[in-house]
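Q: Given only this backbone (280 positions), what sequence would you predict?
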């Protein structure tokens, strides 16, 4: 059994969508708890990206690129300063072949994958059903659901072979209570919860734990790009009357993927400041 001090010693973790926000916080927290961490995302800090490439991924990627909010190299450096191994890989979760190649390289270089955090997600399309863009409906499902499916499928043989592993899927309260103007986003986040349960059932015989985190409103760069009035209304809905920090999610994940949580599988853990509660 691991000690609480060095909870994830000797573990190797892969985090998707880790260039900023919750993914970056997850990567840092897992490393702080002792894990070697692989930081993956569509755009890497040191790469030369064309505007065209960012445009392919939607308005959020374009804004983040133009304002230099891509911290993959910085995150790797911070993890290495903690004395852990780390590397950044360019990985688009919608591309199964690319995911497989990256995971092969990770296993060749780091020896194994114990932890997979399916964090990559899209948060840049809020519109009511009549204005819901069909291309964004498909994009949201491709990234949020199919992306998690690709990464789970690609990591499964390694976890099965070693008879152990832990997978976290990043859902949202939009997936449990819905969201006004969030038809595609909430549908993808709901789908991730049922995917989590099915994978937990299949994984149990191989000691692969699969759980979901259900964040409420978390103060990330992406959240701050949202409509300020809407953000304020959402914050007022939380019992705490304030947004959570990326670290709140990362701390919950660190526990869930550790050997202290081996009897927890198929769960959806709300880290939401009580946004779903009947506040009035
Ligand atoms: N911030 C919140 O309030 C909140 C609430 C509930 C759930 N979440 C979920 O948490 C996760 C992180 O959210 P965040 O606020 O840090 O947002 P974010 O936009 O900063 O993070 C999403 C990350 O996913 C990456 N990404 C997008 N498409 C990708 C693709 N095809 N392949 C690989 N990576 C891709 C982005 O580049 C980005 O780094 C998301 O899944 C989001 O849905 C966030």
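A: Predicted residues:
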């Amino acid at each position: 059994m691991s000690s609480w001090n060095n909870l994830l010693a000797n573990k190797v973790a892969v985090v998707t969508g880790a260039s900023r926000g919750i993914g970056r916080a997850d990567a840092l927290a897992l490393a702080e708890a002792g894990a070697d961490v692989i930081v993956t995302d569509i755009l890497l800090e040191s790469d030369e990206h064309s505007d065209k490439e960012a445009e392919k991924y939607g308005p959020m990627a374009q804004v983040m690129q133009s304002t230099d909010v891509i911290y993959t190299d910085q995150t790797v450096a911070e993890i290495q300063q903690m004395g852990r191994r780390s590397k950044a890989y360019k990985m688009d979760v919608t591309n199964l072949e690319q995911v497989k190649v990256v995971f092969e390289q990770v296993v060749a270089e780091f020896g194994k994958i114990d932890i997979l955090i399916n964090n990559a997600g899209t948060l840049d399309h809020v519109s009511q059903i009549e204005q819901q863009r069909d291309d964004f409906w498909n994009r949201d499902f491709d990234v949020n659901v199919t992306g998690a499916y690709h990464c789970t499928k690609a990591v499964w043989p390694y976890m099965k072979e070693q008879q152990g592993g832990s997978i976290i899927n990043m859902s949202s309260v939009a997936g449990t209570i819905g969201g006004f103007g969030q038809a595609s986003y909430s549908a993808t986040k709901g789908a991730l919860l049922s995917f989590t349960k099915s994978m937990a059932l299949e994984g149990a015989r191989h000691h692969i734990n699969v759980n979901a985190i259900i964040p409420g409103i978390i103060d990330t760069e992406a959240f701050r790009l949202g409509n300020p009035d809407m953000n304020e209304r959402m914050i007022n809905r939380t019992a705490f009357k304030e947004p959570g920090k990326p670290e709140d999610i990362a701390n919950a994940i660190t526990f869930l993927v550790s050997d202290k949580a081996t009897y927890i599988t198929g769960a959806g853990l709300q880290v939401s400041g009580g946004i779903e509660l009947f506040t009035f």
